[in-house]
Amino acid sequence: MSVTNILIGLLPMIGWGVFPVLTGYFGGKPVNQIIGATYGTLLGAIVVALFTQTPLLSGKEFLFTFLSGAAWSFGQIFVFYAFTEMGVSRTMPISTGFQLIGASLWGVFVLGEWSTGMAKAIGFFAIFLIIIGVYLTTYTENKNQTSTGTNGSKALKGVGLVLIAEVGYLAYSAFPQAVEVSGFEAFLPQGLGMAVVATIFAFATKSNRSSKPYRTKSSYTNIISGLFFALAALSYLISARPEVNGLATGFTLSQMNVILATLGGIYVLHEKKTSKEMVAVLSGLALVVIAGIITAFIK
Predict the structure, then answer these.
(1) Taken in order 212, 215, 216, 220, is the CA torsion positive or negative?
(2) Alpha carbons 154 and 131: distance in angstroms, whole number
(3) Number of structural domains found in the chain
(4) Which pTM value belongs to this model?
(5) How far apart are CA 287 and CA 282, in angstroms?
(6) Domain range holding 101?
């Protein structure tokens, strides 16, 4: 693996690591964040399509890639709500852990990966490490009130929101597998699906409509966060190519975004931790990263 390929593989980590920190920094309600994030991603996808002259998909290929983006928006809305319950620094390790577990189980039970007994033993051990790591990142020194103001009930609600979100994230990855399209071809329909769901969500409830999201500054500043997501998604499509890093390694490298996102939540968004909580968070991150690397190299 060349240094160039590794650097390409780390670009998604940067984009997806900065993305949640920026949405927290720009603020706004989940409706403002999802509008800005998806419109920014769509803008990036349009620029890429024009620059690469990628033909627009049609028929089944368009439908499945469109649904892929729609599923991501569905999941991301729940993650934005989770941010409000327990912050970026607690949400992102949980989300990443769930995604690694979901991707692994999908590969085993649907795609037939980890075919040998040894592979399954190593793989499920890695999943066990992820579960322990995620648990450590949720550690609170004061069970009634954390230093970030998150109590146990809010944390439990946040975990539930992230768990629902993983359904959307899994569908985001699974739908394109049902059709044979390149990543570049899928990018624009995915962006359209994301933006359509965000627009529907903006008018879906009375509270969203009354907040007038299209007249709120954060809906537009969050377009910048969407451009970072687009950068991550595009570089991941390149990284996952067999001649670059491949799907397994590319996915694992991209999931290292959890390090940037978690530490960004603590140091940029000032989601304070006690010294014991910091030790637990760093230990949990280390386990999630190690387990992610293990799953990438299981044959």
Answers:
(1) positive
(2) 20
(3) 1
(4) 0.88
(5) 9
(6) 3-296
